[in-house]
User: Fold this.
Amino acid sequence: MKEAEIRRLLAANLLCFFSIILTALLPAFFWDTFTVLGTHLTWLCICSVCVSTLSIILHLVLKPNVTPKRSSFAHKISRFLKCCIYFFISCILFHAIIVLYGAPLIESVTETFLFAVLLSTFTTLQCLCILGPNIQTWIRVFSKNGATSIWESSLQITTMCSILGAWFGAFPIPLDWDRPWQVWPISCSLGATFGYMAGLIIAPLWIHWNRKQLTYKSR
Assistant:
């Protein structure tokens, strides 16, 4: 396994990590009343847009899943439209799953959907950037020993950390503490964000630590 590839992964992950921190700090210079908790829905939009934009740019620059085949312009347009459809479906599915887990069905619809968009940004969008709109490839990557590159291993870790972070973030909500961060969906979205950020740091470190044991085979 090449050390240069691990360093590229670490650099990309650190850019995503610090971009999330900037989404919490920079808007305050232009909007006096901006806070992550006080204007949480606005921050959800800013964070989702910034992470999405940076992820797409990094994908275009680093090209972690380059294939030798050249695709036509029509194929690229079709692929882009498929990615948009997959992302929208992911937002709807996450919204439904969140409601099934106890989120308000009618009240706080906007809050729930923006949280679903954030989760899709941390998970589905990353899959689309690295794996493309290929469900069979997604199933292969998230099966046991399914990763064929360090980028796919990193994708596994960040995706699981994001989902686990959102799940753990739900635990404080029913507690009678009357804290502002207990308002739906602040603790869940912060949990997902911290989980994703943790995954960004853990992934390259884990891959570097286990680089001698990891053997990737093309499938």
Q: What stands out?
A: The radius of gyration is 18 Å. The first helix runs from residue 3 to 25. The chain has a mean pLDDT of 90. DSSP finds nine helices and no strands in the chain.
